[in-house]
Design a protein that fits this description.
Blueprint lengths: L5 H9 L3 H5 L6 E3 L2 E4 L11 E4 L4 E4 L5 E3 H8 L4 H12 L15 H25 L2 H9 L4 H6 L3 E3 L5 H7 L4 H5 L4 E3 L5 E3 L4 E7 L5 E7 L10 E3 L15 H11 L2 E4 L2 H9 L5 E3 L7 H8 L4 E4 L5 H15 L4 E4 L7 H18 L2 E2 H12 L7 H15 L3 H15 L3 H9 L5 H7 L7 H15 L1 H10 L8 H12 L4 H6 L4 H16 L7 H33 L2 H16 L1
Parallel strand pairs: 12-13, 12-14, 14-15
Antiparallel strand pairs: 1-2, 2-3, 3-4, 4-5, 6-9, 7-8, 9-10, 10-11, 15-16
Helix pairs in contact: 1-4, 3-4, 11-14, 15-16, 16-18, 20-21, 20-22, 20-24, 20-25, 25-26
This protein binds zinc ion.
């Protein structure tokens, strides 16, 4: 291992363009003396990741990750200290010098990482050799459609049953401590080490810097015991959240093609490459992670999700879409009429696959279809749920023509007005009264609308509810349904979804959801002090006038009857109403 000269380390430590280098990973915007951006270490929509060029440090107020430039690079690229120094020096144009006599010592942790990677590489070579000498394992791979070239370029291997990994490792003088750190062994209750890979085809997991960091192993014989796939345990060099299978071979092609096809399985990556689609990576778990997304972003900002067609695969797409929404990726979804991409390619061929790439649907189409599958749009109560689910995706579409197209499409399917969706997307601020009179229901009386708004306010805000119902009582509302809702609201301490979910009667529930959604779409949820007073006094004064005219009618009758006592009572009430 070459030794870095102390002078190189010092120059990197003093390098002051932290914003320039972190800017390659995070979109940074100036905010006063500092720069802010979306944190690469956790998922967020509003930036809490801060870089201080003056102090030469970064800090995230969300996940509390912090440090200097070297620790940033070490963490984000999963490098040792020396590798990070080399990487920064390269980008900063600092000459990297090596010094055999005056060496810079690695930390213990880094030295262990180096040795673990070395062991994994040596084991990889053993597995490859074992595959070469095992016709049954080789036959299996050939039967699965893999060419010799693919097998070689992905360094596939075989953990033969006769091969004693532990014995071999000990012969190589690797220590037990080192072996435990590789993630390839598990410890029995008696404390003995056992290999996780026995009689399995092995898929070496190689990172973007061409380092072997772990293995995946697959059973291949009929009736073979154990899980279909096992992976190395996570270790000091292998973190599943940060790993993308196939990245060492795919990265240059992804940069060239300017998009990444994301699949689920090792075999999918292999077969895609074999059929000439080399810009393909596989996630290492059930869905894309923030760390993986960040890694892909450094290669391309366009992604096509191409997961399995079973429900687990579709859920993986959905969860990946949710994650990618928070980023500025262009995302499309490819749906195949086969179990997975490998099976599709082998049965339908290259051209059909290419056609599916061309016809990949937008994230909006995919998520809208999913929402409509989950909640039938024929049931009116489902419509707010579907809209709630699709709005973030519509809002993320910055091209207005495309956005309008989808808004119309969604509105047509849901049978609602496109303006309602558009207002919700844009969070339009309408003047309340104008919004009132220009709304489609302008034939509704002012009084009716005021009652509706009061119900919306009190259903979405507890403080407003208290204020409103300290002045008016439910029976003062003329609309019987609203009056019924009001009685329920007074008894309840919850708002919004919890409140709505607590209402048993379907029509009450639907009505309340509808008026809330409408008000929300027009951003009429939070009234100003004056607006609130206006609505309340409208309801009260209307009530008063109604009572006054009632009293006048009654007085006429009582006068005819000569009921002096009754008349006196009514006149007193009338007087009270008029001076209030
Ligand atoms: Zn963070």
């Amino acid at each position: 291992m070459p030794w870095l000269a102390e002078s190189t380390v010092q120059q990197v430590k003093q390098y002051n363009d932290i914003v320039g280098i972190i800017g390659n990973y995070v979109d940074l915007k100036r905010r006063g003396r500092n720069y802010i951006g979306l944190c690469p270490f956790h998922s967020e929509r509003t930036p809490s990741f801060t870089v201080s060029p003056d102090k030469g440090i970064f800090h995230c107020f969300g996940c509390h990750e912090s440090g200097d430039l070297i620790s940033f690079i070490t963490k984000i690229d999963n490098l040792t200290f020396i590798e990070a120094i080399e990487k920064i020096a390269e980008q900063a144009g600092i000459k990297i010098e090596y010094d055999q006599s005056k060496s810079f010592e690695s930390s213990q942790d880094d030295a262990l990482k180096e040795s673990v990677r070395h062991i994994l590489y040596q084991i990889r070579l053993q597995f490859t050799q074992l595959l070469d000498t095992s016709p049954s394992a080789m036959n299996y791979l050939t039967r699965r459609g893999l060419s010799d070239e693919t097998i070689k370029s992905f360094h596939l291997g075989y953990a033969a049953p006769a091969f004693n990994l532990l014995k071999w490792s000990e012969e190589q003088r690797f220590t037990t401590e080192q072996l435990k750190k590789t993630g390839l062994f598990f410890q029995t209750e008696q404390g003995a080490l056992r290999s996780r890979f026995k009689n399995r085809i092995v898929f070496p997991i190689i990172d973007e810097m061409n380092r072997t960091i772990g293995f995946g192993g697959r059973v291949f014989e009929l009736d073979q015991q154990g899980a279909k796939y096992v992976n190395s345990e996570e270790s000091i060099v292998f973190n599943k959240r940060q790993t993308l299978y196939g990245i060492s071979l795919a990265k240059s092609e992804i940069k060239k093609q300017k998009y990444t096809i994301l699949v689920e399985g090792y075999m999918d990556v292999l077969i895609c490459h074999q059929y000439g689609f080399k810009n393909v990576l596989a996630i290492m778990g059930t869905a894309l992670t923030t760390e993986q997304a960040q890694k892909i972003k450094r290669l391309s900002s366009s992604i096509i999700l191409c997961m399995d067609s079973d429900s687990a695969g579709q859920t993986a797409i959905e969860r990946s879409c949710e994650l990618l929404l928070q980023t500025q990726y262009q995302v499309k979804v490819m749906q195949l009429e086969a179990k997975d991409p490998a099976e599709f390619l082998m049965s339908q061929g290259r051209d059909a696959f290419q056609e599916h790439i061309t016809n990949a649907v937008s994230i909006i189409d995919f998520m809208f279809d999913r929402a409509c599958q989950k909640w039938s749009p024929k049931i009116i109560e489902n419509i707010p749920k579907i809209i709630e689910c699709i709005i973030p995706y519509l809002r993320a579409e910055t091209e207005r023509i495309i956005q309008t197209h989808y808004v119309q499409k969604v509105a047509t399917v849901l049978n609602i007005e496109p303006e309602l969706i558009m207002a919700k997307i844009l969070n339009l601020k309408y003047n309340v009264r104008r919004g009132f009179s220009s709304s489609k229901n302008s034939q509704k009386s002012k009084r009716q609308k005021a009652e509706e708004f009061l119900i919306v306010f009190s259903a979405t805000d507890l403080a407003l509810r208290k204020k409103i119902f300290s002045t008016i009582s439910p029976d003062q509302l003329t609309d019987p349904l609203l009056s019924k809702i009001a009685s329920k609201l007074i008894e309840s301490e919850s708002v919004n979804a919890v409140l709505i979910e607590g209402i048993k009667d379907a029509s009450t529930k639907r009505h309340l959801t509808e008026i809330i959604l409408k008000a929300d779409a027009l951003n009429l949820i939070s009234p100003s002090e004056n607006e609130l007073e206006d609505y309340i006094s409208l309801v009260i004064s209307d009530q008063k006038e109604k009572r006054i005219s009632e009293i006048k009618d009654q007085l006429k009758t009582l006068e005819k009857q000569g009921d002096e006592e009754g008349m006196t009572q009514l006149l007193q009430e009338l007087h009270g109403l008029k001076i209030k």
